[in-house]
Amino acid sequence: MNVGVAHSEVNPNTRVMNSRGMWLTYALGVGLLHIVLLSIPFFSVPVVWTLTNVIHNLGMYVFLHAVKGTPFETPDQGKARLLTHWEQLDYGVQFTSSRKFFTISPIILYFLASFYTKYDPTHFILNTASLLTVLIPKLPQLHGVRVFGINKY
């Protein structure tokens, strides 16, 4: 019996990205970040696009691939404490709609940043490195893998 638990999910972290309006909120958040960076007077448009891409990917990496556990009280006896949010998403099932959305969104942002920076080599290297840091951990082959034991516990 779960006293004080208002949700019906064993682990709400598994379904939060599928909740109503989450994708729109995510896209609006990225757009708001971009507008805020554009409002800073001494940043050029290419710098703003690169900063938007890098900040987005850094946030995505931290919240989806580095932080483990769940912020909710769960009756699963701590099974989720060793899993990142990406590994908990959709109960670990690969290629669901939310996983596809969160895989494609940094790619689209990368294409936009590359286009608006006119493929400048410096921006291109920064944007590509940033993209790879969020795409590689999303690969199904790396589900549950800890490279060199980093973030094992």
UniProtKB/TrEMBL annotation:
The chain crosses the membrane at residues 23-43, 101-117. It is a multi-pass membrane protein. Its main location: membrane. The keyword Transmembrane applies. One of its GO terms (cellular component) is endoplasmic reticulum membrane. It is found in: Membrane. GO terms for biological process: regulation of ceramide biosynthetic process; sphingolipid metabolic process. Pfam families: ORMDL (PF04061). The keyword Ribonucleoprotein does not apply. Keywords: Membrane, Transmembrane, Transmembrane helix. Belongs to the ORM family. Plays an essential role in the homeostatic regulation of sphingolipid de novo biosynthesis by modulating the activity of the serine palmitoyltransferase (SPT) in response to ceramide levels. When complexed to SPT, the binding of ceramides to its N-terminus stabilizes a conformation that block SPT substrate entry, hence preventing SPT catalytic activity. Through this mechanism, maintains ceramide levels at sufficient concentrations for the production of complex sphingolipids, but which prevents the accumulation of ceramides to levels that trigger apoptosis. Ceramide-sensitive subunit of the serine palmitoyltransferase (SPT) complex, which is also composed of SPTLC1, SPTLC2/3 and SPTSSA/B. This is ORML1 protein. It comes from Casuarius casuarius (Southern cassowary).
